[in-house]
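Troubleshooting entry. The earlier prediction with glutathione gave an output that would not parse, so I re-checked the input for stray whitespace and re-submitted. Clean input:
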Amino acid sequence: MKLFWGAGSCAIGIHILLEEAGLAYETQRLDVAGGETRQPAFQAINPKGKVPTLVRDDGSVLTEFSAIATWIARQAPNVGLIPEDATQEARAVEVMAYVEGTIHGQGFARIFAPQVFEPQDAVHGKLGVGADSVRRQGRDMVERGFAILDPVLASHDFAAGDRFTIADAALFYVERWTPKQKIVLPDNVQRHYERLLTRPAIQRVRQAWGEA
Ligand SMILES: N[C@@H](CCC(=O)N[C@@H](CS)C(=O)NCC(=O)O)C(=O)O
């Protein structure tokens, strides 16, 4: 199978899960910032034009972080990337959905691409004053999102209990975006981020991404 990724992107969470699961895979880096996901060659693979994109060995394509993460976890059932307990599984999905839909999809999306939310602002390719208020709004959403998750991490080391799961891979990718944006993580989330940075699988991926 092959994972398509781009520097700095949320695809790092999927790369981490492939490593944690111990599966055989290859990767292909795209110039996401340069618009390669919008080129016909990649759109033919994933018309959504997004990474992570996973092409499986039979040629079929999986998109969306949670779908790819769940499928990877199922390929390595003994690793425990999805909790066996139904409530803990629901907790893992709850955190992952909140990361994808709210912290990333609503918050960081406003910070990274304000023009999507204020299209009238992007006349002649220049962002106007509206972009700043959209970015500020995004920042508030991100900070509120991490504040909501902080108590979840107060009583255990990982997002859904005492083991690393798909939820931690999702949480990691948004935590990783905060230093550059000068967003201060609440204490328990910060400790979670630091804990994850010590994991060998994450260190291998960061090295492959040229980050460590
Ligand atoms: N809902 C998608 C979001 C993926 C996404 O937003 N990916 C970004 C990178 S973090 C991307 O590919 N952006 C390229 C673009 O929009 O052109 C998922 O969960 O996989």
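This one parsed fine. Strands lie at 2-6, 26-30, 53-55, 61-63.
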